[in-house]
Amino acid sequence: MGEPPHEVGELATARAEARAAKDFALADRLRGQIADAGWTVADVPDGFTLEPLEPRDPLDAGAIRRRARDIVSILDQEPTADISVQWVVEGWPEDVVRAIGAFRSNQGDRVVHYVVADVTATDPDTYGPDVEVVRLEDGTGWAAARNAGLKRSKGRLVFAMDGSVEPTGDVFGPLEETLADPNVGLAGPFGIVTADLREFDEAPGAGDCDAIEGYFMAFRREMLAQAGLFDEKFAWYRTADIEYSFRVKDTGASAVVVPLPATKHEHRMWFNTSPQERARLSKRNYYRFLDRWRDRWDLCVDPKPPEPHDHGPDHQH
């Protein structure tokens, strides 16, 4: 690998100084200038590294769209970043661009690795020169796309995000503090509770809950080995978050609501899917969850299982 030109090194040094001064807008502009010069800068604990950008075919925007199962996992390697923040894009990439900008403005001196699993053939440059874009073939289901992105996680902590959520302040610190507790397996600002595994309600406030909603799920990277990846039968997103929360709780860890400064915008996939199709897909996913967890009352914070009773020989099941 060749050495970067002197002027690129000066830009990278100036960017490091801007980050130290918390002038993240300037740091982002300098990152763009570095990319325009053909280099990418990556933050590491003791400074930064510079690597040449791979040349792209201008007619192709560069990348082959792959099958999710062909994405190489790096989860067996040591983490090289503090946090990996990951999105699935099935449309509306501008929502993720908004979210990435908001995260950058509040990341401080942390080393943050941004990953986008994109099913839409969006030009990778849309997301920024340092964002790892996993380009996936048409028809890739939601959970398979999520897993493809998660397999690329470099951070000690992982944030699995929805593009509808925009941080408005420091969301990193509270989650780092919460997940430092080894008894906490999953955290986020939006939680739900259930007493009967049939009806689910918004969690009343901070603390233990039955599931963390998929708008913003945070966990230690090692949880991907303990609980596994998402169930790829969830080709649509609904209830996949509940199912994964129960798998995390089945390891003996808790799910915890953490108040965070974040705005929840319109969820595009929900509002751009017809009510009839939403109902059909949601029902299918719910029964997929129920097939595995219908009797696991022990995983609920405040369970109220149905009273046992004798159906009798004439009961209609």
Describe the structure.
This protein has 317 residues and is α/β, with parallel strands linked by helices. It folds into 2 domains: 6-52; 68-299, Spore Coat Polysaccharide Biosynthesis Protein SpsA, Chain A, CATH 3.90.550.10. The protein is built from 9 helices and 15 strands. Strands 5-4-3-6-13 form a 5-stranded mixed β-sheet. Helix 1 runs antiparallel to helix 2. 38% of the residues are buried. The model is unreliable at 56-62 and 309-317 (pLDDT under 50).
Key features of this structure:
single chain; 317 residues; Spore Coat Polysaccharide Biosynthesis Protein SpsA, Chain A; five-stranded mixed β-sheet; three-stranded mixed β-sheet; 9 helices
Q: Let me know the largest β-sheet.
A: 5 strands, mixed
Which CATH class of the largest domain is shown?
Alpha Beta
CATH topology of the largest domain: Spore Coat Polysaccharide Biosynthesis Protein SpsA, Chain A
| Annotation field: number of helices | 9
In CATH, the homologous superfamily of the largest domain goes by the name Spore Coat Polysaccharide Biosynthesis Protein SpsA, Chain A
- Average pLDDT, rounded to a whole number, is 89
Secondary-structure-derived class: alpha/beta
Amount of beta strand: 15-25%
Radius of gyration based on Cα positions? 21 Å
Order of helices and strands: HHEEEHEEHEEHEEEEEEHHEEHH
C-alpha termini separation: 68 Å
Biggest sheet, strands in spatial order?
5-4-3-6-13
Number of strands: 15
CATH architecture of the largest domain: Alpha-Beta Complex
- Point out poorly predicted stretches: 56-62, 309-317
How would you describe the shape? Answer: globular
Secondary structure: helix percent? 25-40%
Count of discrete structural domains: 2
